[in-house]
Amino acid sequence: MLRAREAVRTLPSYYPPLAGRQGLRLDFNENTVGCSPRVLDCLRSLNLEQLARYPEREPVEAKVADFLAVAASELLLTNGVDEAIHLLCQAYLDPGDEALIVVPTYSMYRIYAMAAGAKVVSVPLGERFQFCTNAVCDRITDRTRLIAIANPNNPTGAVATPQDLRRIATSAPHAALLVDEAYFEFYGQTMLGAHHNFPNLFVARTFSKAYGMAGLRAGVLVGNTEQMPSLRRVISPYNVNAAALACLPQAIADQTYIQQYVNEVLEARALLERELRINGIHFWPSQANFVLARVGSSAADSAAFAQQMRTRGILVRDRSSDPGCEGCVRITLGPEAHTAKLLKALQETLREFRPLQGASRS
Ligand SMILES: Cc1ncc(COP(=O)(O)O)c(C=O)c1O
Description:
alpha/beta, Aspartate Aminotransferase, domain 1, Aspartate Aminotransferase, domain 2, five-stranded mixed beta sheet, 17% strand, globular, disordered C terminus, binds pyridoxal-5'-phosphate
């Protein structure tokens, strides 16, 4: 009888809760209003020829490389950052190798590393979810082949400093260090450029968040020229579809749109943090387009809170199942009109939400 590989048979299933998302989408860290009008115009103008041909990645890679001020040979366009993570796991992890992650963090590092048959070594973030370089360095072994760090991290919004990341890259020259900058636009600091000095460093970016193109699936992976040929050997030649490729030059050309959106999100983040503080709700200061808040002390509390917000038309993400996140929800931010709706629903919910009283408030 046909059986999947052992690593696949024992892999936990991952189902992002996408079904029935009616309401304001503050649950997946997407752009809540969508992409630049230039991207939409480009999509509307796609012709038969563009769809009939196999998509050619290289000319668009050259444009994106130019935008990011890296060489085209150092950059790959991927089917979202998810494919970049998958690619690194395929290229660097043999069964039994170790993949180091800090937790809580983005789920797909663990899933792709496990699917490759690697052992996942999880390093808990500090008590306040701060990044602990010493703890990460202590867990590096001869078998460590991949270290994946989301910077800013999801779901905490916390960051590692460039010094932290350089120290890790130096401590594990035999491991690929992925710095996943999916939320770069909201933070502004990057490790791009450092890949010239660290042959084991990879930096990922996405068009799914600030750019509002999660449905088109486009990401970027940048690494040292020494390593990129190995990745080009494993990547599918047609991994990014023609519609996404046509739109990317328009997306990067409209930086005014991105900057405007980012500014609104940063204002919204300050307003939400203020509201949570006033209500005595513990939250973790964030450098991304979301805030993690502890609304109760149990999974039942966070589920009830998310449900109450849903009945008021606002979707937030229950993160209780993440390590150390019992009773927590993650709330994505958007522009002014969405923030007004969010704050209104939050105030109403907090007025009625009984489990929040007492111990759960800080
Ligand atoms: C840290 C991080 N990396 C990657 C992704 C996925 O990005 P993409 O849509 O480009 O695959 C997410 C999405 O939530 C994320 O939070």
